[in-house]
Amino acid sequence: MKPSKVYSKIRNKLFRKFIILHYYLYRDELRTKINHVFQYDDLDIGLFFEEQEEGALPGDKKYSAADYYKYMVSRYIFSIRYIKNKTVLDSGCGFGWGSYLVCNYPEKIISIDLNEKALDFAKSHWDDKKLHFLKCSLLNIDSLNETFDVILGMEIIEHLSSKDGETYLYQCFRNLTDGGILILSSFFPDLRKESEKAEKRNKFHLKIFTKQEIKKLAQHVGFSKIQFLGNLLVILKKRP
Predict the structure, then answer these.
(1) Which domain holds residue 34?
(2) Which of 95, 176, 81, 168 is nearest to 131 (CA)?
(3) What is the pLDDT at residue 1?
(4) Which phi-psi region, left, alpha or beta, contains residue 155 (left: φ > 0; alpha: ψ -120 to 50)?
(5) For a designed S-S bond to 218, which of 55, 181, 200, 223 qualifies (C-beta 3.0 to 4.6 A apart)?
(6) 48 class by beta-carbon count within 10 Å (0-12 exposed, 13-18 middle, 19+ buried)
(7) pTM of structure
(8) pLDDT > 60? residue 44
């Protein structure tokens, strides 16, 4: 195995541990909400297999058995340091459990998705007056007529084509306040051949951007600061 690949594996393992640490740091504070989220699994969603394949609930057995639920939850908990007292957009919120977990921290949070059934599930299961679930395309965030301090894109960009991924980043950039940030979680491999392998393994993943590709695209769109955490998360900042 090449040294660079070994380094990437070690780096990503350390990153996962760092992210999961946030689960334990906030577990007591968020215990009621975490327990509520874990009450539901994929059988409660009421979607056909094809519809729910790329949506996920942390309480589903396939995630809890592998301890992956901690990483799923921790990605949102990690964002708390950035969203406190801010105006936040959760783009591609899916079933809405992530928005629900962190909704007490921002000043305002809007959560968007195109899947009406997923939004119906979110609206009927997560009861909090701070939540606003709306049907909206990731490619038309302009239609919200809002600006945001922070935009979250958790496991979203890989579901877009290369062209739509660029449009999505443009939309995020345009609707961020000066100094605002976009947090993207996905898989951003070092090499294009790794991306191609990942795309072949999952038909729902239309484009796996490499680190270099997402960096180049973000700079082209206008983001001034780009910070990767392993190959699994990137924070993009708009110039103040």
Answers:
(1) 3-237
(2) 95
(3) 47
(4) left
(5) 223
(6) exposed
(7) 0.93
(8) yes
